[in-house]
Amino acid sequence: MVLLASILVGAAVFPYVLGKKLYPVATNLQPRKGFSSEDNIFNLEVSRITDLQIDRYHAPGITNEYSRSDPANADGTKLLLQETETGNWQLFDNQPPFRRIRRLRSRLGGENEPRWDPADPDVFYAFRGTSLISYNLSRKRVKILYDFKRDFPQAEIVGTGSEGEPSEDFRWWTILVKDVSGRPIAVVCFDKQTGQIVSKKTNFEYDLSQTEINWVSTCPISGDPIVGWNFRPERDPFGSNHYGAVRYAKDWKKMTDTLADGHADVAAGLHNEELLIYQNNANDFVETVNLLTSRRTKLFKIPFPFQHNSTLNLHFSGNISSTSSRRGWALVVTDEPDEKNFSWTSNQIFLVQLKSHPKIWRLAYNHNNYTGEYFTECFATISRDGQRVYFQSNWGDNRSYHGARGLYTDEYVISLPPNWENDF
């Protein structure tokens, strides 16, 4: 065990666990709602936010939407979580005992991709049909910011594919417009400050009968668009569905093809480089690629456990703000079908520096038993201030609901030591 003893927590020095050593699975018990249990391997407290029996949300599960967005509001007092069965959104207090406040009105349910305003803790933005909207919690009021159907009469739905974010200041939005069949009509660069579409891309360089747009997102600092293409056969040595992220200028005339495939997230580097951390399916490394220069940096080799099982899910969270002293780190989460240690990454949540030969800080076991169902993949995400990690887990419980096996999840949070960035 590698320990770094610098941060004082009370009278004790916090014992970091760093590196890629194989450790036993943690044996900390599932905490009760509003309480914590300490991961006995990695030394951090894991607190339970939700309990199906107490909160009475719609069975079987609840989750933060995905690894690529922060579920907490600007001041960290509220939390938006999604029912996996209905798609409805539940609002929670974000401090123990994590009281459930209310379910948001049904017309906000479904794939709306709520994104909290970076400054106003009372406001979040979401997509509803063909519109970008804002929602004020105190007033319970919806405001339509822009309806993209006025520019694209055939539009049926807009969004990012549930994996995108606007720029950090929430001015610039990359938005995918689709028709009733789900076929892309356009990708637009929208300026929320002026309330106008700045530019649009309607001619696609890849054949949409062979290729699809899996997600769109936005560079956090420059606000330039990113498009995540799915199934790139000319660059797919394995014949499986890979992703290819392409960065464009706002006028869509300039293109940087990163060739980044696999699960990914945008992140700010230590020197405010705009990076993509991703799973490279061609060489089985977790890497970053610079979204301006296409320069790649290998972070670590993925220890796929094919000798034991063929499933290892990885997700990435690069939410830490470029204005934070904690920038230059990203969160990685893995899960596998059993709570066993097939490798040093098995069923774990950890932070990695976004540079060559990075430090890897092991945070906790997620106690999640992946059952093959989408929502039993662990979507751990880090807050924009880099202080909290949220994740959903079934804690090894594969109970059945309505004849469906293995759909149960509850939500948990890890609070990191204060000023942890000063120790690295």
The largest sheet is:
5 strands, antiparallel
Distance between the termini: 17 Å
Question: Helical proportion?
Answer: under 10%
Low-confidence stretches: 1-11, 232-242
Inertia-based shape: globular
Domain module count: 2
Output the radius of gyration: 21 Å
**Overall SS class:** mainly beta
- Strands ordered across the widest β-sheet: 3-4-33-30-29
Number of helices: 1
Strand portion, in percent?
A: 35-45%
**How many DSSP-defined strands?**
33
Q: What is the residue-averaged pLDDT?
A: 89
What is the secondary structure topology, with strand pairs?
Elements: E1 5-9, E2 12-15, E3 36-38, E4 45-48, H1 52-55, E5 62-63, E6 78-83, E7 89-93, E8 100-103, E9 115-116, E10 123-128, E11 131-136, E12 141-147, E13 157-159, E14 172-178, E15 184-191, E16 196-201, E17 212-218, E18 225-230, E19 243-248, E20 255-260, E21 264-268, E22 274-280, E23 285-290, E24 296-301, E25 313-317, E26 329-335, E27 348-353, E28 360-365, E29 381-382, E30 388-393, E31 400-401, E32 404-405, E33 410-415
Antiparallel strand pairs: 1-2, 3-4, 4-33, 5-6, 6-7, 7-8, 9-10, 10-11, 11-12, 13-14, 14-15, 15-16, 17-18, 18-19, 19-20, 21-22, 22-23, 23-24, 25-26, 26-27, 27-28, 29-30, 30-33, 31-32
